[in-house]
Design goal:
With about 250 residues, this protein is α/β, with parallel strands linked by helices. About 40% of the residues lie in helices and about 20% in strands. It is built from 11 helices and 9 strands. It has helices at about 1-15, 25-30, 40-45, 45-50, 55-60, 60-75, 80-95, 110-115, 170-180, 200-205, 235-245; strands at about 15-20, 100-105, 120, 125-130, 135-140, 160, 185-190, 210-215, 225-230. A 6-stranded parallel beta sheet has the order 3-2-1-7-8-9, with helices on both faces. Strands 5-4-6 form a 3-stranded antiparallel beta sheet. The longest helix has 15 residues, at about 80-95. Residues about 5-10 have low confidence and may be disordered. Bound molecules: adenosine-5-diphosphoribose. Adenosine-5-diphosphoribose (APR) binds near residues 34 and 219. This is NAD-dependent protein deacylase. It comes from Parvularcula lutaonensis. Belongs to the sirtuin family. Class III subfamily.
């Protein structure tokens, strides 16, 4: 009885349905560039030229070169303690009969490599390619070019499986469903500058649920959170997960 009681008490002491949003900052300690930090990708490249459908139409080779460089880096980086801590939090919550939804803006697959199961990559994945002609999506680890034939239809119209500015993020119906059930929301390593992801904290506020920000510095929407922790994700995320699991 005490074991079952303990289990019952355990279920009562921490939130049961958690939604976490992550951004480039959670992968910074793995060596992956963020976008808007001083050495970020959007400082070195013009996003309008390498991360929009118009930029791809104007100069596909330039866009392929940008994503080929980022895709080529993937085998050289590894998940860091922050990624592993979120995978552990998910496992513990699910074991206790709760749910955990990891909404990531990142395309580096590091959450999945760290063992996270329910990951919604709303901005796509660097390790996949999509045919602009037939829509076929395939795992893709190598360079892409304007000469790459689609494995399904043969047309040379492959593009990175990335959601560009002006395009619709993926999985957002699932994201909203998860937010409806959430009793805790956290945003980790994101500047809160790109919508609709950046709007999730306001959605959480409307639902009156606790909203935690974990970031190197205050994000654009830092004031909307009920709790803010600042520091390197690889340090503050494992510490935060320990407090959530109690
Ligand atoms: N630990 C925690 N946070 C960090 C770290 C770190 N080691 N290093 C940087 N950060 C924080 C920065 O302070 C910043 O607030 O991570 C955030 C990164 O912000 P961005 O570079 O804007 O990245 P992100 O928020 O993921 O961008 C969102 O914009 O360009 C689009 O599709 C792209 O998914 C991307 C989206």
């Amino acid at each position: 009885a005490s074991r079952h009681l303990g289990r019952y008490v355990c279920m009562m002491v921490h939130p049961m349905n958690i939604v976490v949003l992550t951004g480039a900052g959670i992968s910074a300690d793995s060596g992956v560039d963020t976008f808007r930090d001083p050495d970020g990708a959007w400082v070195k490249n013009d996003p309008m030229k390498v991360a929009t459908p118009e930029g791809f139409a104007e100069d596909p080779a330039r866009v392929h070169a940008f994503y080929n460089a980022r895709r080529a880096q993937l085998p050289t980086v590894d998940p860091n303690p922050a990624h592993f801590a979120l995978a552990e939090l998910e496992a513990e919550l699910v074991k206790a009969g709760g749910s955990f939804t990891l909404v990531t803006q990142n395309v580096d697959n590091l959450h999945q490599r760290a063992g996270s199961k329910r990951v919604l990559p709303i901005h796509g994945s660097l390790d996949k390619a999509e045919c602009s002609a037939c829509g076929h999506v395939t795992v893709w680890k190598d360079d892409l070019s304007t000469e790459t034939p689609c494995p399904a239809c043969g047309t040379t119209a492959m593009r990175p499986y990335i959601v560009w500015f002006g395009e619709i993020p993926r999985h957002f119906d699932e994201v909203e469903d998860a937010m409806m059930d959430a009793d805790l929301f956290a945003a980790i390593g994101t500047s809160g500058s790109v919508y609709p992801a950046a709007g999730l904290v306001a959605f959480a506020r409307e639902r009156g649920i606790p909203r935690i920000e974990l970031n190197l510095e205050p994000s654009d929407n830092a004031a909307l959170f009920t709790e803010n922790h600042y520091g390197k994700a690889s340090e503050i995320v494992p510490a935060w997960v320990k407090t959530v699991l109690g």
